[in-house]
Known about the structure:
Strand content: 5-15%
Radius of gyration: 21 Å
Number of strands: 3
Amino acid sequence: MSAVWKAEAGAWLLDGRIVHLLNPLPSTRDLVGLTLSQYSWRVLVATMRDRTDAGWLLEAIVAGEITDSQVEEIADALVEQIFGQPRWVVVRIWGETLAVWREVDAELGAHGIDLLALAPDRATNIAFGVLQRRHSGTESAAQRWLSELEEVPARARRTSVSADVAAADWFAMAGILGGVAPKIPEAMRGVDSELTIT
């Protein structure tokens, strides 16, 4: 669902700490650059209202109190809230758009559209439309491009394991470790930290 149809988030919460977002957020140009960065923490820091929160976050990352996967999860949620699409889709759309920026900017400029002056979700949808037209040579090529665009990366895939399978794995590991029979683990209750976008 496009961000324009969602309620605007004003903060996120991690382990009881409320982190407020800037209002207004950085420009679309800046947000695109931050989203394309290989360092996911940049999206978090650049969208924080309070610099003390940025200091807390960076210290917690360095100290190992916040894991890379937690940073990725927060960045995924923020980018989806801002751009209206999953972060990996946004990265692929803008990566491809910037690779042919001269042509995209010329095409849209001829129609009086300054893509980077638009809100992030609108700009991304328009960039998607331009790219989709470029890949519409054949139905199979268009479908292949769309499938590749929307493919969920391994880091974001959620796989569930039944309690029986988890217990069997647990006992197999116990056998490898010398036959120590651990207690059967309870079903997972989530992660140590909880993220909420409000």
